[in-house]
Amino acid sequence: MAANIPTNAPVHGTPTVPHVEHDEHLHHDEHHEQSFLTKYIFSQDHKVIAKQFLITGIFWAIMGGALSSLFRLQLGWPESTMSWLTPVLGKWVEAGKLNPEFYLALVTMHGTIMVFFVLTAGLSGTFSNFLIPLQVGARDMASGFMNMLSYWFFFISSIIMFSSIFIETGPASAGWTIYPPLSALPQAIPGSGAGMTLWLVSMALFIISQLLGGVNYITTVINLRTRGMSMGKLPLTIWSFFLTAILGLLAFPVLFSAALLLIFDRSFGTSFFLSDIYIAGQALNNTGGSPILFQHLFWFLGHPEVYIVIMPAMGMVSEILATNSRKPIFGYRAMIGSLIGISLLSFVVWAHHMFVTGMNPFLGSVFMFLTLIIAVPSGVKVFNWLATLWRGNIRFTTAMLFSIGFVSLFISGGLTGIILGNAALDIQMHNTYFVVAHFHLVMGSSAFFGLFAGVYHWFPKMFGRMLDEKLGYVHFWLTFIGVYLVFMPMHYVGIAGFPRRYYAWTGFDSFSQFADLNKFISAAAIFAFIGQFIFIFNFFYSIWRGRRATENPWNSNTLEWTTPVIPGHGNWPGAIPAVHRWPYDYSKPGAEKDFIPQNVPYSQTQSSNLPNERETAE
Amino acid sequence: MIALGILLVLVLLLVVFGLLFRLQILTSIFSGSLTREIGMSNRVNAILMIIFMVVGGGAFAWSFIDNYDKMNPPIASIHGYAVENMFWTTMIILGVAFALTHLMLFIFSYRYQHKEGRRAFFFSHNNKIEIIWTLIPAIVMASLVFAGWKEWTKITGPAPKDSIVLEIMGKQFNWLVRYPGRDQKLGVVNYRLIDATNEFGFDLNDNNAMDDFTVNEIHVPKGHPVLLKIRSRDVLHGVYMPNFRVQMYAVPGMPTKFWFTPTKTTDEMRAQLGNPKFNYELACSQVCGRGHFAMKATIVVDEPDDYVAWFAQQKSFAEQNPDVLASFKQKSDKLVKDKAADAAAVLTQTTKASL
């Protein structure tokens, strides 16, 4: 891709800190016309690919939200008729009632879509792609072609997953964790027939897409940083994307192997996960397999996966909080350290999902210990965010509101993790709505808030226009209130022991006392979902008709704001700026303005230089 | 027709919304608020933060207290009390952390909202406080881990030798229960022997299986340790008994177990709750298919004497199903014959080989 760009070696000052070899000689080619197809469809420009991920992600988020509204209708009003939904759901409404197997399919698809297609591909895919080259000071990703492939693998994977919703036997229905034997045997549930096959194929392609993307992100961050951009000067967004990509690269192949073995069990008669099964009037020949093995493989990905979802959000929130508090992020190094700590620990806590699966209790003790350790770096991050707000000069942009909301949701959801990570307490709480409430707050809603914060903050750089702030405020407050109304009461239902993935709770005396609360949760969930259309409207309206943005609307320090209003292919029309300082010089005493962009050398800011920076300036 | 009407109303609402939106933009251009860098809305949002904290916090506290009685399933096992204590102790610690961090979050947001002419405090790090707020959570975590680990090893440790043993087997979509009979030994079962009558797959060639009996309702004696042996014959299930704070997966091909000591009989619990219809319930906690939400069994906790009487009344599976027993006799006779024939064949072969 670099080959067709004319070289036009601009020498921009003398390099003060020769750091990494990079394509300084490459020059942006605005005159190089591209056809519609290569510019918008099969584009190799990281910014276009980011937008492709974002818009696909938005599509999936609407889909995932709509599915959840459907099953919340069932949970809130189990006695009422659903026949008005027959035009949409067809045969899945039987005599006015939702088919219980389809209910499980809804739950499964909601989980799969939200975790993988929205919060992994939609979040990382969008912002890693968009921000890594812009913030490290690169013309594009290390391999634009692989980057394009990453999106198109994701696209094909999406098409397959989407089509699985419409097949005769229904989509995968064994829960998003697809535990065998339920997911392996079509006799056990119809969704484990063709629906499950499509799920596995789609997920295999999805993993390929993630790996192609991840290799690119890592390579770009390591090799293509601009002059002066040492690892210790990277914005926290880049650190979080970088570590997220490493997690993905190490964890996703394990899911791939689990999926592969499951495909073998399903189609080729092997017994990796199956043993001693009598089903549908027939004893199967499989012996010696272990369903627990699958759970180990699944959660070896599955747990890092929740950090893959949340870490990019953490990075963006750190950046946005600092920018809008007009203060340096508190404890920059501690923030990096805690990200690294979380990344390492995320690989050794997976079995806390399996305390009561029959796993050896000693293993349970080990994993309980490791799990509760991970609360420490997470706590450090929260305190540092709070300290960043302290004595700031806060501007409540919509992005800032969502970032504050993120911190709140992350605290609320994270704390209950301390209960669930305690094996003795997990005996009662496992697979109840307490778990559902916990992870919807800490990784679902928080990551969504991170995503929204990112979109509101970087929209001007993406489309050259601003999102409407007033609508943004309405969207934020509706969502923030809605999320809490949904998930706080859900804890109560969970403490009472209501198991998740239940089509109805009416059969049990212990659980049926929460009829009103369930109705309330359902109403709040549907209300919060409808509120999201304000954002959808704002987003698409503002792409074409929003207020025009300036180059650096938030007075931010990072490199992406030194590009033109709409950066072209190659990002900077001239030379790539060199970096001289860390990204958080906000409200520095003695400085003229309350921000000093990273590309401003110390020699130009004599009045504000700290003692240790004076030497660098000379 | 109604659908059309709803659609029309929705479209009209959207149009009204769009017009209002345009109007708002035009007025804000007119009033010049779009050119101001930080306008009135900054203050409004700061105030909303405080309102959210007060109203939201209040509503949360109220609803929590309002639901508190409902959300605690009445406890009926020894370890249940310990776990319950630990749960609410942890919740109090978490509640303090929750309240403190949220107070800071919202009050800082309000207190440090933008003011013209003020500059934020350039405060990039402070090693001392960072160490403090790393260590304090670490110490709290360590003590929680220690308490949890002690309880966990106690609960999952070996069951007392004199425990009542019974086996629960999950299947789509109900629970099968069997007791070891008078010999206190559960007989061999084999999933290949399962059919419509022999749902457990009893191998009646095994003498220990002869007096095993199956029941629909689980009975356990009060005050006596009970060891549940748990199996599944098709997909994963979860044995979940909220009142006893018991949960363990049922895994095909891998027997699991859980032991507990019930502390209140069903009658005592009924009297305590003032609910004559109360029953201890067993629910399935791991998604298993269409009937997952209705996989229920009932547990009856008896006084020890009643339990003994109940136990004595039960008839063994073999006794109740003589035809199954007879077919086993036949098969085993045939098997013995076949084996003898096989042995003879092997013998001739080996003799041949040795020649």
TrEMBL record, chain A:
SUPFAM superfamilies, alphabetized: Cytochrome c oxidase subunit I-like
Keyword vocabulary terms for this entry: Electron transport, Heme, Iron, Membrane, Metal-binding, Respiratory chain, Transmembrane, Transmembrane helix, Transport
Protein name as catalogued: Cytochrome-c oxidase
PROSITE patterns: COX1, COX1_CUB
Species per Swiss-Prot/TrEMBL record: Hymenobacter roseosalivarius DSM 11622
Domain annotation Cytochrome oxidase subunit I profile: ranges: 36-604
GO BP terms, alphabetized: aerobic respiration; electron transport coupled proton transport; respiratory electron transport chain
Membrane spanning stretches: 53-75, 102-127, 148-167, 198-224, 236-264, 306-322, 334-356, 362-387, 399-421, 433-459, 471-492, 520-541
From TrEMBL, chain B:
Assigned EC number: 7.1.1.9
Keyword flag Metal-binding: yes
Residue span, Cytochrome oxidase subunit II copper A binding domain: 161-313
InterPro entries, per the entry: CcO_II, CcO_II-like_C, Cupredoxin, Cyt_c_oxidase_su2_TM_dom, Cyt_c_oxidase_su2_TM_sf
GO annotations of cellular component type: plasma membrane
Domain Cytochrome oxidase subunit II transmembrane region profile: 59-159
Known cofactor(s): Cu cation
Subcellular location: Cell membrane; Membrane
Keyword Nucleus among record annotations: no
Topology of the protein relative to the lipid bilayer: Multi-pass membrane protein
Biological process terms in GO annotation: ATP synthesis coupled electron transport
Cofactor note: Binds a copper A center.
Annotated catalysed reactions: 4 Fe(II)-[cytochrome c] + O2 + 8 H(+)(in) = 4 Fe(III)-[cytochrome c] + 2 H2O + 4 H(+)(out)
Segments passing through the bilayer: 6-25, 46-65, 85-110, 131-149
Class in the EC hierarchy, top level: translocase
A UniProt-annotated Pfam family: COX2
Keywords for the protein's UniProt record, in alphabetical order: Copper, Electron transport, Membrane, Metal-binding, Respiratory chain, Translocase, Transmembrane, Transmembrane helix, Transport
Family matches, as PROSITE patterns: COX2_CUA, COX2_TM
Entry GO MF terms: copper ion binding; cytochrome-c oxidase activity
Family of this protein: Belongs to the cytochrome c oxidase subunit 2 family.
PANTHER family to which the protein is assigned, alphabetical: CYTOCHROME C OXIDASE SUBUNIT 2, CYTOCHROME C OXIDASE, SUBUNIT II
Function, in words: Subunits I and II form the functional core of the enzyme complex. Electrons originating in cytochrome c are transferred via heme a and Cu(A) to the binuclear center formed by heme a3 and Cu(B).
Name of the protein: Cytochrome c oxidase subunit 2
Organism (species): Hymenobacter roseosalivarius DSM 11622
Lineage summary: Bacteria, Pseudomonadati, Bacteroidota, Cytophagia, Cytophagales
